[in-house]
Design goal:
Layout lengths: L1 E6 L2 E13 L2 E6 L8 E6 L2 E7 L2 H13 L5 H11 L8 H7 L2 H49 L4 E2 H10 L6 H10 E5 L2 E4 L6 H17 L1
Parallel strand pairs: 1-5
Antiparallel strand pairs: 1-2, 2-3, 3-4, 4-5, 6-7, 7-8
Helix pairs in contact: 3-4, 4-5, 5-6
Length: about 220
């Protein structure tokens, strides 16, 4: 039989086949849908309302359990649940058409899109502000590390690599990799790290000279 199905995008006339009935409730699914987990529909007021997606072999047992249990009347509960979507984030346009509330629902959807756009803009603005603040703090930390190193005190391995980049002290790939993985702290005359590097002091000296030349200039 053909029937009017309540779908997200509106009311669609489709061919339906019965899957069972119980105590005056009649359930169907789409004829073209061969999936055993296909959505099942309740026939009400000459319209087919989606109920749930569950295996064909278990669906009627689920419905009988609900109908016989101490639950709200199924038709009423289903109508209330579908109607609530009209003011939620995913309105069912088929329900809006069934209730004669399409224009109202379209206005709600337009407002949703405006709200989502504003939220995205606010999120991006916060992310950009955080990025700028992080960059500001990173520059401040690097300046402090520069002063600390020029005094002959220890700085972190990450700060050492960043300062080398800033002052054009080119670290060979092997040395750079060791600094990033293993160097904990370093000063112009000592370092602490996992393992040893024969070359790191050479570049520490070059960095110290570069910083002093900048200060002198």
């Amino acid at each position: 039989m053909k029937g009017k199905c309540i779908h997200f995008d509106g009311i669609v006339t489709l061919e339906m086949v019965p899957v069972g009935s119980y105590k005056g409730y009649e359930f169907f699914k789409l004829k073209k849908d061969r999936d055993v987990y296909a959505t099942k529909y309740l026939l009400h007021d000459e319209h087919f309302f989606p109920v749930m997606s569950v295996h064909d072999d278990k669906f009627m047992d689920e419905m009988k359990r609900y109908i016989d249990g101490n639950f709200p009347e199924m038709r009423q509960a289903l109508m209330e649940a579908k109607e609530k979507t009209l003011t939620g984030p995913r309105p069912i346009m088929g329900m809006a058409d069934y209730l004669g509330r399409r224009e109202e629902t379209l206005q709600h959807i337009a407002q949703l899109h405006e709200d989502w756009k504003r939220q995205d803009e606010e999120r991006l603005a916060k992310a950009e502000a955080k990025k700028k603040e992080d960059e500001k703090q990173a520059r401040k930390a690097l300046r402090n590390a520069e002063k600390t190193f020029s005094r002959g005190d220890k700085i972190s391995g990450d700060a050492f690599v960043s300062l080398c980049d800033k002052y054009g002290v080119v670290l060979p790939l092997r040395t750079r990799g060791w600094c990033m993985r293993s160097l904990i702290t370093i000063s112009p005359d000592s370092y602490k790290g996992y393992g040893r590097s024969n070359a790191v002091f050479r570049y520490a000296g070059k960095l110290k000279d570069a910083i002093e030349n900048k200060i002198a200039a």
